[in-house]
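Entry under discussion copied across for reference:
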Amino acid sequence: MKSAAGLAYRETGPADGPVALLVHGYPQSSYMWRHLLPALAAAGRRAVAPDLAGFGDSPADPPGTWERHVERLERFRRELGIERCVPVVHDWGGLIGLWWACEQPDAVDALVISSTGFFPDGKWHGMARALREPGTGEQLLEAADRETVAAVLRQSSASFGDDDIAEYWKAYADPDRRRGHLELYRSGDFAKLKRFEGKLAGLGAPALLVWGAGDPFAPVAGAHRFARELPDTELVVIEDAGHFVWEDAPMRCAEAVTAFFAARL
């Protein structure tokens, strides 16, 4: 894999094509975009997908806070010389990528938002609350062996195969990476988003919302809230898919994204 600004990344498509910047969720990596990357390339787009620090093939770079990930994403963008792009974000990649978009409005052509939130009154789900709790989070990660992580992922989606588990296990490979999980979640105070109220809508960018109907971590109600708050949205809800919608229905997701780009950009 290539590397820029300390982040490993995958890239497909023409070097001079319009850019899609793919930001993965937790505990995944750019590997989660393996089906979307060739679809975007076939559509004439340059697709760039970094592994966030401490995930996939990117080393940890403490502290692993929310703010630090946003800063790293901007350094990555600048080192690659990307002037404008479409952020395609999922889960924690949404919290990071949408924060970045609000701070870099001139770099955003459109948005693809999936299975995330960006609301000051947001609430964390049970696993996230455990990671945020001092002592409990440390115990949880200490007990996270490969079999446990595999069981948790497969409980969320039957789509995870052995190769997928091997890739996402990299996020737990050493103490610095595991510590980064705690730093990320413990920095995840939704009240920080108050200063961005109205700014995402103020981008005026068309947005595609891609959601699994059965998402227990970022329920589809959040997609409908984005649709109400943003001025120009298209919502695609995929039945028989959950939080890991890009794993559950990769071809349907890729079709939705490429059709959106063709029609709106």
Summary: The mean pLDDT is 97.
